[in-house]
Amino acid sequence: MKIFQQGLRLQARRRGFHIITHEVEHALPQLAEIRMGICQVFIQHTSASLCINENADPTVRQDFEMYFNKAVPENDPDYIHDYEGSDDMPAHLKAAMLGCSITIPIRNGRLALGTWQGIYLCEHRNHGGQRSIMITAWGE
């Protein structure tokens, strides 16, 4: 059994859904040493999230942003947690809906994503800043 772990600091991105698959793969070159295993990617924040979805057509990511903005609107007068800005509480809710980690099989030294799948950084703040991710891979 081999176990590898690496932190990754992502550059600040604008609000939206961003493909980070290559950054994750590049951060952990030891993936190549695992024939069969699991990779967990975990974001260390409460106002951004991770998910896996369409990696080819950018309109999918635009539609994700549109949907979540409709589902979790800003400036809701019922929010109590509002002192960090109008995008903060909605960002926490969106992050809770999508989650803070993803798990991907490793096969023959590569992430076994489907043909049209990519890892998304889901940035829910207008000015979220840099984001920290922890990548852990294990297997044989």
From TrEMBL:
Stored PANTHER family: UNCHARACTERIZED PROTEIN YJBQ-RELATED, UPF0047 PROTEIN C4A8.02C
Pfam families: YjbQ
Family statement drawn from the similarity comment of this UniProt entry: Belongs to the UPF0047 family.
InterPro entries according to UniProt: UPF0047_YjbQ-like, YjbQ-like_sf
Domain of life, per lineage: Bacteria
Gene3D superfamilies, per database record: YjbQ-like
Name of the protein this chain belongs to: Secondary thiamine-phosphate synthase
